[in-house]
Structure formats: C-alpha cells, structure tokens
Amino acid sequence: MLEYFFLIIIILLPLQFALNVSAGFDLVTTRILVPVLFLLWFVRGLAQKKVRIPNRAETWLVVVFLFLSALSLALGRDADAGFRKLLYLFSIFPVFFVAADVFCEKKWRDRGLAAIAASGAIAAAVAFFQFSLPFFLGVGKAVKIWENLAPFFLGKSFGELVAANSSWLVNIGGVTRMRAFGFFPDPHNFAFFVDLCLFVALGYFAGRKNTSRFWLGLAAITMIVAAILSFSRGAYFGLIAGALFFAIAFLKRSSILGKSAVIAGLVLAIVFLLNSNIISQRLVSSFNFKEGSNAERYKNWTQAVEIVRDNPLGGVGLGNYARTVDPALAGDRSSIYAHNLFLDIAAETGILNAIVFLALLLVSVRRGVKNGNALGLGIAAGLVGFAVHSMFDTALYSPQVLAIFLVIIALNLCQKFKKI
To answer: What pLDDT, on a 0 to 100 scale, did the predictor assign at position 171?
Structure first.
C-alpha cells in the first residue's frame, strides 16, 4: 500500500496544487504528501523492526546539507524567513529515504522507473496543451487563462508573484511567443523537471528489450520536444551536456549496432538544431551580454559573488538572500535570487554547503557511471544536465524538481540492471 502511495506521488508531481493556508502562506500538496509518506514509512519500519537507511556517501551528504542549512539560521537577519525555508527542505528531503528503501526491491524499482517516465510525460503533455493555446486564442487570452489558473496550482500569494514577474513569454525574431511550462511557475523549473525524467526514461529505454520500449520512446520524444519549446537557454545547454555525456559513455560500452544508432541520433540532432531558426537564435542570444535577461543574470551573479566573498563560512542565513540584496524588501515572497544554484546555496548557507551539494551531484554521477548499465548512464547524464542548467538557474526551491531529483538519486543507489 505504501509503495503505491509513493508511486502516485511521483506520477502526480506535475499536477500538484496549492492550499492557501493563510495570507502569504501557500502549501502545495507535495509538501503535505511527502511528510505523510515518510511518517507511514517510518512507523511501518518501527513495527517491522527494520528501518532501512542506506549507509552510502549520498545519504551522509544529504544529512550534512540539511544540518548546515539549519545551522545557517543562527546567522540570518530574519530567522522567521529562514525557518520557513528550512521547513520546506524538511518537508521534501524525506522522500529520499523512502525512495532508497522502496527501490531496493526490483519490482518496485521497475514500477518507479515507469512512474518517473510517466510523470515527465504528463508534465510535457500539459505543457503542449498550454503552449498550443495561443495558436487558437491568441497570446493575450492564453496568458490570461493561465494567470487565472496560477493561484490554484501555485497558491494565491505565490501565483500573484509569478504573474507579476512571469517569464512565460519570449520574443524571438520580433515574434512574441508563449513558452511551454505547464503548471510549473516558469519554463526553467519545468525544463529542470522534464530533463531529469527524460534521461531516466532514455536509460531505461536503452536497457529494455520488450514492448514497453515503444511507450518509453514516445515519452522520451514528448519530453525532448517539450523541453525545446520551453525556450530556456539554460535547459538547452543542460540538455546538450547531458546528451553528449550519455552518448560518449554509451559509445564506450555498447556494440557496433548501438554505436551506429547513437552516432546517427547525434547527427540528426545536430542537423535539427542547426536548421531550426528559433532554437539557433535562442542559443546564439545566450552570448549577447547586452541582451536584457543576460545583463540581469550577470548582475545577479556579481551580487551573489560579493555576498559569498563577504560571508564565506555560513552565508547570510537561509532565506535571507533577497533581503541582503534589498534590505527594504517587504514580505516573504521575492523574485530575487542568484540565478545560479551553487551561488544561491553558498550565499545563504556558506561555501562549504555549496561544496556538499556539488559533492552529492558528483558522487551520484560517478555511481551512475560505475554501475555500468544504460540506466546508470541515463541517471548520470540527467544529473550532468541538471548541474549545467543549474549554472544559470535555481530549482532547489521547486517542490516538484527537488522531489524528483532526490528520488532519482535514491534510485541510483539501488538499481542493479544487466551491464551493457
């Protein structure tokens, strides 16, 4: 029963909705369901006198990351803001321990893989529908519809903040387009989520030989196209980095037929990218430092580096980055952040904690490669893509992205598939 509850949570991540508990306080369903899941798992373990927690490097790094995040509260100007952010972390991170236990059994590992692929496909399908609306209703009406839906899926206060500072639209070649993002707050978090699910699905697809490959392949194609339609340049770089990593690692281990298929796929992808005017314009614009969003991102990076330089050990305290940049800031919600995951962590909780999170990524990538099978390579490639994308954005505070990230890292601890 608990295992099915866990799988349902994974599948429904892109469809989470929010409860407006009080003024300025939104609580998404993921933050309710994960603690309930963890409590049920822990109670069952106590009843069976068997609470399984893997003694692996990833487990200790997760614990240290949470400890250092909590320790930073003592340094923050606003302890309340930091405490709320810490509560958020402690409401999502427990899914790692549940996943690490559930995935120890092959039956649930296989079903978990299918759930991850299904979750990514659902997110992509919703985004396709949302992306298509402007072609029938016009951009203005489509945006209005999604602004009305935002309070339900994102929460009243957060939905209003997103609508006021949205990155839902992009101008390419003089044409304003609505980007793909589904029920996520922005295209960047959407792309983070889909890309993580995508590489797991690709790894699972490469290691399967039955009819399920058709559905896995269809899900993977759907997610690739949806990620492209997000028009997120950080996602493009992450997708390219992950694909190259997967292709190179797979080439070293596969047969002649497998090598030929990977090379053909890479050639087709390169031809498509070079001949797609919209995609090539987005990629080229990444190197235009006078372009508005690029200039703003560089400014954010500079501010974050200065904060880290002045507060290297413990940062400014969890939840205090925005107020450090703008001391006059009122309220708990802000769109101010470093636009770089590692700088965000270092600025708020110290350089050491940023190193701990980076180590979590590196150890997980190494384990995926060391496992020597297609799924391990897929997980490693997804984490490489996540790391590259994280150089341009932060997804740590997206409940869906953080949850799927932790589930995939836990999956990497337990998967034991046939080597390539």
So the answer is: 79
Alpha carbons 303 and 338: distance in angstroms, whole number: 8
> pLDDT per residue over 356-369, tens digit each?
999 999 999 999 98
Could you read off the pLDDT of 40-55 as tens digits, one per residue?
Answer: 999 998 988 888 888 8
Alpha-carbon radius of gyration of the chain? 21
**Average pLDDT, integer, range 195-202:** 92
Residue at token pair 């952010």: 85
In a domain, 81, yes or no: yes
Q: How is residue 270 written in tokens?
A: 């390169």
> Which pLDDT score, from 0 to 100, does residue 287 have?
54
State the total domains in the chain.
Answer: 1
The string over 205-224, giving b where at least 16 C-beta atoms fall within 10 Å of a residue's C-beta and e elsewhere, is bbbbeeeeeeebeebbebbb
Q: Is residue 420 part of a domain?
A: no
Tokens, residue 223? 């997610």
Residue 417, pLDDT score: 40
In a domain, 419, yes or no: no
Residue 28 to residue 33: CA distance in whole angstroms:
9
Q: Contact at 8 Å (CB) between 290 and 325?
A: no
CA dihedral in degrees (174, 180, 185, 188; nearest 10)? -80
**319 backbone φψ class: left, alpha, beta (φ>0; ψ -120 to 50):** left
Contact of 284 with 273, CB cutoff 8 Å:
no
Output the pLDDT for position 273.
52
Domain that holds residue 232: 2-414
CA 244 and chain centroid, separation = 19
3-state SS, residue 254: coil
pLDDT-above-90 percentage for the chain = 44
Residue 155 lies in a domain: yes
* Nearest residue to 335 (alpha-carbon basis) of 387, 289, 291, 300: 300
